[in-house]
Amino acid sequence: MIASRVDIMASITDPNMSDTFTNAMEEMHNKQLKAFGEIIDATTELCQSHRQFVKSAQDTCLKKCKDDELLFETLQTFKRDLQQKNTLLKEKRCSVTEVMAEIQQKEMQKEEIIQKIDKLKEEQAKRKELIESQNRANKDRLKNLQKARLVFQDHLGMEIRTIISKTVKGEKLQFVFRNINPSDQDSAYVVTMGIKDGVYQIVSSDPALECLPALESRLQETNNLAAFLANIRKEFISRARQ
Questions:
Q1: Cβ atoms 193, 200 nearer than 8 A
Q2: Shortest CA distance to 159 belongs to which of 185, 203, 190?
Q3: Range 216-238 average pLDDT
Q4: 6-to-9, 12, 17, 68 alpha-carbon distances in Å
Q5: 189 exposed, middle or buried (CB, 10 Å; 0-12, 13-18, 19+)?
Q6: What does the alpha-carbon distance between residue 85 and residue 78 come to, in Å, rounded to a whole number?
Q7: DSSP string of 114-178?
Q8: How far is CA 198 from the centre of its chain?
Q9: For residue 84, how far is the Cα from the chain centroid?
């Protein structure tokens, strides 16, 4: 123990030993400085690399953000266009529906018009047939009138006149009977009649006969004008003898 202290004291007092220690300390200091320098260089390089990575990441993020914004705007534009197209499509559908409804309505109207035309054609055909039938009946009645005229005018002194009535439409026939009243052979007894829709109609008689409606009904049932005129003459004779 005492020897070690002596050696240490000897080393401190030794000038060579002091230089050795100083050199060792400087060498150690230099090594530490070199190590610190290397650490600083590595740190600086790492910081630069980190800055470059951060800048690259930031640029990538900015570019990504711009791309996302552009994509979002594009999506919004597509969305607006789609909404407009949907609106136009709805309007077109409504227009098509209205047009189809109008077409259907016109088709229905067309069918109704065709049915009305067919009905009118049927009615016209029936009316034509009825008119032709009435004309044939009127011709037959005219023939009967002519025959009755010949019989009554030549043998019974009856005169047939055609008159225009102010109260009843169409021409009327007036049958003037004479040789009725023995005391006055020229005295006129008159019955006026016409034909409407193929049916005989009695307008009046002078003098008036109470049985005239019954005689008219029988005439309309039988169409026997000669018998009607004969019965009228009998009624006038009976009336004259009262």
A1: yes
A2: 190
A3: 90
A4: 5, 10, 15, 82
A5: buried
A6: 10
A7: HHHHHHHHHHHHHHHHHHHHHHHHHHHHHHHHHHHHHHHHHHS--EEEEEE-SSSSSEEEEEEE-
A8: 47
A9: 27
With beta carbons less than 8 A apart as the criterion, state whether 190 and 176 touch: yes
- CA 32 – CA 35 distance, rounded (Å): 5
Task: Kindly report the average pLDDT of the chain as a whole number.
Answer: 81
Maximal C-alpha separation, the chain: 214
Contact 148, 229 (CB under 8 A): yes
Name the token pair of 35: 């190590």
pTM of the model: 0.41
What pLDDT digit, counting tens, does each position of 154-191 carry? Answer: 666 788 888 875 655 567 888 999 888 888 888 899 99
Q: How many helices (H) and strands (E) does the chain have?
A: 4, 4
